[in-house]
Design a protein that fits this description.
This protein is mostly helical and 384 residues long. Helix content is 75%, strand content 0%. Helix 4 crosses helix 11 (249-261) and helix 6 (124-146) runs antiparallel to helix 14. The longest helix has 41 residues, at 65-105. It is found in: Cell membrane. Belongs to the chromate ion transporter (CHR) (TC 2.A.51) family. Keywords: Cell membrane, Membrane, Transmembrane, Transmembrane helix. Its main location: membrane.
C-alpha cells in the first residue's frame, strides 16, 4: 500500500474537506466535482485515473457513494487519520444545519415555515424522478456488457414496484435482484429456464423500543441502500411513517426536502427521522449509525479497492442490485406524491416536474422555488 502520510497535514484536510461540507449543495454530482477540483486539479494529490477508479470503487459499495468518496480521498491524502478527520469535516456542517432546521420544522413553527415546508415537500417527488431518470442512461448502456437489457429492465421494474407498494421489504428485493444476477451470470444459457429459489429472510421487529428500531432504520440506510441518494427514501418512509409513526407523511416530505437543500449528503435526512423519533439525541445517534459503515468500508478495505472492482461476483451483484436501486428511486415518487393532501400542492408538483425533467433545473433551485410558492399560496389564503 502506498504511503499517503506526506500529501497533506490534518489541518489542511480539516479545512478543505470542511469547506466542501459547507458548500456542497446539489448532492453527489456536486460533491464529486468539488472533490475532483480539489484533489486532482488544484492540489494534484491524485491523478485523474486514480480519482476515476475511486469513484467507480465507491459506487460498488452500498450506502452514500459521495460520502465514501470523500472519506477515500482523505485516506489517500493522509491515511486513516485523514479519513476520520476529512469524513467528519465533510459530514458535520450539513448535519448541524439539518438538525437545526428539524427543530424548526418539526416543532410548532410559524405559518410561513409550515407553508415553506408544504411547498418544498410537494416538489420532492419530482426531484426523485429526476434523480432516477438521470441514472438510467449509463446503466442501460452498460447492461449488455455483462448482463442483458431484458434482465436490467426486469430489475428496474422490480425496484420501482417494490418502492411504490411494499416499502418495508425493499432491501430484501434489492439483495434478491443482486443474487439473481450473480446466478444468471454463472448458470449456462441452456439451464436458465429453471428459476432459482431465493431465500426468504425474516424481518425482525422493532424489539426494545424506539432506540432499537431507530438503530435498525439507520443501519439499513447506511449499509443496505445500494445506489445511495434517493434509494433510501422508501426505506426510511416505510419505517418512520408507516411502521413506527414517528412522523406524518407531510413531515417526512419536509425531511426529504431538508436533506436536499442543505449541504452534504442526502443521507442527512436520517438525522431528521432520528430527531422525530427521539429528539436531538436520536438525530445524532441516527446519523452516527448511518455513516459508520462508510467509514468502516474505507478504513478496513480502501487498500483492497482494486480487487473489489475486479471481482466478477461483486460486479454481477451490482448488475442486478444497481438497476433495482434505480427503479426504487423512481418508485419512491409514488408514495411521496400520495402523501400530499392539498390541491395546490399537486399543482406545485406539476410545475416542479416541468422544472426538473423539462428544463433540467437542479434540486436546490426547484425545492427553493417550491418553498417560495408555498409561502405565497398560503399567505394568500390557500389551505394548509
Amino acid at each position: 500500500m502506498r504511503d499517503t502520510r506526506f500529501r497533506a497535514d490534518l489541518t489542511t484536510v480539516l479545512l478543505r474537506w470542511g469547506r466542501i461540507g459547507c458548500v456542497g449543495f446539489g448532492g453527489p454530482p456536486a460533491h464529486i466535482a468539488l472533490l475532483r477540483r480539489l484533489c486532482v486539479e488544484d492540489r494534484r494529490w491524485l491523478d485523474p485515473r486514480e480519482f476515476e477508479d475511486a469513484v467507480a470503487a465507491c459506487n460498488l459499495l452500498p450506502g452514500p457513494s459521495s460520502t465514501q468518496l470523500a472519506i477515500f480521498c482523505a485516506w489517500r491524502v493522509r491515511g486513516r487519520a485523514g479519513a476520520l478527520v476529512g469524513g467528519a469535516a465533510f459530514i458535520l456542517p450539513g448535519l448541524i444545519v439539518i438538525l437545526a432546521l428539524a427543530a424548526l420544522f418539526l416543532g410548532d413553527p410559524p405559518i410561513w415555515v409550515k407553508a415553506a415546508g408544504a411547498g418544498a415537500g410537494a416538489a420532492v417527488a419530482a426531484v426523485a424522478l429526476q434523480a432516477g431518470t438521470g441514472l438510467m442512461p449509463p446503466g442501460w448502456h452498460r447492461a449488455p456488457q455483462h448482463s442483458s437489457r431484458t434482465r436490467w429492465t426486469l430489475y428496474l421494474l422490480t425496484g420501482a414496484l417494490a418502492a411504490a407498494t411494499v416499502g418495508p421489504w425493499l432491501v430484501l428485493l434489492l439483495v434478491a435482484c443482486g443474487l439473481a444476477e450473480v446466478l444468471a451470470q454463472r448458470v449456462p444459457t441452456a439451464a436458465r429456464r429453471t428459476k432459482p429459489t431465493l431465500p426468504v429472510l425474516a424481518a425482525g421487529g422493532a424489539g426494545g423500543g424506539a432506540l432499537l428500531a431507530l438503530t435498525w432504520t439507520a443501519i439499513k440506510v447506511g449499509a443496505l441502500s445500494y445506489g445511495g441518494g434517493f434509494v433510501i427514501i422508501p426505506l426510511m418512509r416505510a419505517d418512520a411513517v408507516d411502521q413506527h409513526h414517528w412522523m406524518t407523511g407531510a413531515q417526512f416530505l419536509n425531511a426529504v426536502a431538508l436533506g436536499q437543500i442543505t449541504p452534504g449528503p442526502v443521507v442527512h435526512t436520517v438525522a431528521v427521522v432520528g430527531y422525530a423519533a427521539a429528539g436531538l439525541g436520536g438525530g445524532l445517534w441516527a446519523a452516527a449509525v448511518a455513516f459508520s459503515p462508510s467509514f468502516a468500508f474505507i478504513l478496513l478495505g480502501a487498500d483492497r479497492f482494486d480487487r473489489l472492482r475486479g471481482n466478477r461476483h461483486v460486479r454481477a451483484f451490482l448488475d442486478g442490485a444497481g438497476p433495482a436501486a434505480i427503479g426504487a428511486i423512481l418508485g419512491s415518487a409514488v408514495p411521496l406524491a400520495l402523501a400530499l393532501d392539498q390541491a395546490w400542492q399537486y399543482a406545485v408538483l406539476a410545475v416542479a416536474t416541468g422544472l426538473t425533467l423539462g428544463l433540467r433545473r437542479g434540486p436546490v433551485l426547484t425545492l427553493s422555488a417550491a418553498a417560495a410558492a408555498g409561502i405565497v399560496i398560503v399567505l394568500a389564503g390557500g389551505p394548509i
